Amino acid sequence: WKTENDGASWTDLSTSLPPAVKGLWISHVELSAQDRLVAYVTIDGHRSGNYHPYILRTADGGKTWQSIGAGLPDGGPVQVVREDPKNPNLLFAGTEFGLWASLDRGAHCSRVGRLPTVAVDDIVIQGRDLDLIAATHGRSLYVIDDIRPLEELTPEVQAKDLHLFSIRPAFGRHQFSGWVGSAGAAVFHGPNPPEGALISWYLRRYTGDSVHVAVTNAEGQPVANFAAPGVAGIGRLAWDLHPTNDLLQKYGGQGAELLVPAGEYTVTVTFGTLKETGKVQVSIAPGVETR
């Protein structure tokens, strides 16, 4: 049902749904953050012996509906669909067989990450850091840190041989390693996310070259150097806001344990003859000594 007057009156939209889904359980309704006429519904028919993964999309306020979700595994009903708050082409779906994503509004779907084959009942995209949280049925919560690369993976980016995604601001601090549980040998917590700046890039194809990442400060002085495999797709590494060993005198008393000062740093990613440059803003917690 739909209301446009704070509930004073309601319109039945079920009459416009495809015949195959009428009478089945609507598991989730998702409104677009970009277009008030766009909405999504997921339909779970397992109570009626129908295990098809149904996701429907309307672009006219519910007058007509189109089936989307090509590539989702048959036999696994969909529990939830989320539209990215910034990129309306990016959708996430929680199914009985894990987490899936689409870069083209559901025309094609691919499995996300290394999540176990477990039902995903809900998905939340955290607004400040753009982390994605997936709630599973019986396997706790999973977090994907910083989904900016997926948000920015447009057709134009995919056509490039190399692309450096925007880097979210980094915060330097001394973090406790964790806590010791009191439940015998069981540990009911996951590792903390990587410290510092997450640097992500896209490669269109594998050439045999490695990816080289260089970080310099505002004066152009080198701060950190990294190398990573040149695997096609999205690559990522974490800079912990410390200088790398190649730029330190091992016995020179330079304070390798100290963080870099706050400020803007330049990140340069090189792949063969290709080069992309971006910026990362670093802030440091009060009281933390820096180099």
Keywords, separated by commas or semicolons:
four-stranded antiparallel beta sheet, mainly beta, 3% helix, five-stranded mixed beta sheet, 291 residues
Describe the structure.
This protein is 3% helix and 37% strand. The chain is elongated and about 70 Å long. A five-stranded mixed sheet has the order 13-19-18-15-16, with no helix packed on it. β18 and β19 (274-284) form a beta hairpin. The protein has helices at residues 148-151, 155-158, and strands at 25-31, 39-44, 54-58, 66-68, 78-83, 91-95, 98-102, 110-111, 120-125, 132-136, 141-144, 162-164, 170-172, 197-203, 211-216, 222-228, 233-239, 263-271, 274-284. The longest helix has 4 residues, at 148-151. With 291 residues, it is mainly beta.
Number of helices: 2
Unreliable residue stretches: none
Structural class call reads mainly beta
Output the radius of gyration: 23 Å
Question: What gap, in angstroms, lies between the N and C termini?
Answer: 60 Å
Order of helices and strands: EEEEEEEEEEEHHEEEEEEEE
Task: Give the rounded overall mean pLDDT.
Answer: 91
Give the strand content: 35-45%
Shape: elongated
Largest sheet: 5 strands, mixed
Question: Helicity level, as a percent range?
Answer: under 10%
